[in-house]
Design brief:
By secondary structure, the protein is α/β, with parallel strands linked by helices. It has two domains: 11-188 and 229-250, 3-Layer(aba) Sandwich (Rossmann fold); 189-226, no CATH class. It has eight helices and seven strands. Helix 3 packs parallel to helix 4 (108-127).
């Protein structure tokens, strides 16, 4: 007997959905029957994702907002709810990457303001816009393996992603009585534009080619491969499904064995 898509009629908001992991998550949820609201800074990329989702038959709302701006993300969430109804869940994926170094051009503050503070603004903006229980509601944060380990030259990124695990644990405790599940997923190397930019930086520092940098990076990955964005999306889809009932306050690692 055919079953209806497991997110049929549910409304999810995904930040940073224009490219990479965010786009893959939005696509997977749309394939499962959800309505999507896409939020991010790059409107053209969001509109491109929206067109692809509408081709799948998904209702889509798009709002441009910088998650560092609490008022802007709150307004975007309210507009999304007005357009498509209360939220079943939010996937806080938006973020920035790359290294930072001390000096006048140190990016530490921007990395933390975007990845940690911006994620906090996103979750708080969505908190009062979640559908009523008793069915579980979901907050999912996209963290990183660099929240688990330290990498020289990435103090801002490591600090911001590490902070997300503490945020998730505390907020999961805070919202547990209302039936809201709060979790993080922690990818390692994922084949995205951000990952290739990182490898290009490695290659430049090593005085080598991109292929050589990739080979060097994979030495620390037991399975010897990058994840695909669709694989991370599958983990998120599981978390927000009935099969993920009872999982809260957790950081789920998907990094081809690198966090061993």
């Amino acid at each position: 007997m055919n079953q209806p898509p497991r997110q049929q009629g549910q409304h999810f908001l995904v930040t940073g959905a224009g490219t990479g992991i965010g786009r893959a998550i939005a696509t997977r949820l749309a394939e499962e029957g959800a309505a999507l609201s896409l939020v991010g800074r790059r409107d053209a990329a969001l509109q491109d994702t929206a067109a692809a989702l509408r081709a799948l038959g998904a209702p889509v709302f798009v709002a441009s907002a910088d998650i560092r701006d609490a008022a802007a993300i709150q307004a975007a969430v309210q507009a999304a709810v007005q357009a498509q109804g209360l939220l079943r869940g939010v996937v806080a994926n938006a973020g920035v990457g790359g290294p930072n170094a001390p000096g006048a051009d140190d990016r530490f503050t921007d990395l933390v303001q975007t990845n940690l503070v911006g994620t906090y603004h996103t979750l708080r903006a969505c908190q009062d816009q979640l559908a009523e229980g008793p069915d579980p509601r979901h907050m999912v944060v996209v963290a990183s393996i660099l929240g688990r380990i330290g990498v020289a030259g990435y103090t801002g990124y490591c600090a911001s992603k590490s902070g997300l695990f503490g945020l998730v644990r505390a907020l999961a405790q805070e919202l547990a009585a209302t039936g809201v599940q709060v979790n993080a997923v922690a990818p390692g190397w994922v084949e995205t534009e951000m990952a290739w930019q990182g490898l290009d930086g490695m290659a430049q520092a090593m005085g080598s080619t991109r292929a050589q940098a990739f080979a060097e990076a994979m030495k620390a990955v037991p399975l010897g491969r990058m994840s695909q964005p669709a694989e991370i999306a599958g983990l998120v889809a599981w978390l927000v499904s009935a099969d993920g009932r009872g999982v809260t306050g957790q950081g789920l690692d998907m990094n081809n064995g690198a966090w061993m």
